[in-house]
Write a structure and sequence with these properties.
Helicase, Ruva Protein, domain 3, mainly alpha
Amino acid sequence: MALVTQPISRAARGPAGNPLPAPGSVERRRASLALANHARLDAAAVKRDIRTGRLTVQEALDDPRAGSVSALGLLRAMPMVGSTRARGMLRRAQVGENRKVRDMTGRELVALGVEARR
């Protein structure tokens, strides 16, 4: 018995032309959205803690909540550090601006911590 597939009508496609999720995957999609929201809230909390002085950059680099924060975002959360100063610090530490904390090597973490203490 051959499997016959019907083409998906235009009405059953999402805005990008992709098929809409299967009815059974709605729960999975909600769970994914909840995880993404949780990661954003954690990142915002870490940056807020740095800004208020409750957390240093070195402590934030070891904090698992900071995994999704970019190196530039982490440094810009420091008081008196804007985009230009943060980019200079990243250049001296040889760390990419968009590098996420969870993806940094040991050398990059140490270099960024040293640069943030200056």
